[in-house]
Structure prediction request, 81 residues.
Amino acid sequence: MISTVTTTTVTTVTTATVAVIAGLSLLAIILLLGLLISKEVVSAGETPRLQALSRALNVAIIPLLLGFVLIAAVKVIEVLH
Prediction:
């Protein structure tokens, strides 16, 4: 009885965790796309303030880009197995 409850609990928690991770991955990719679009629009401006904003957007873009690479690598590994 206890092993059945434990197995069911582990399965439920694992399934919920995978769903949360998938949702967060999608959110991170959408945020990355939005920031990249914003950077392109802002970098077209010639004022010093817009140029500074363009450089400041890198603070958010670089970690999200690394996260995207990690997500893509995990998905490729899943497909290959």
Summary: The chain has a mean pLDDT of 85. The radius of gyration is 20 Å. Residues 31 and 39 are 12 Å apart (CA to CA).
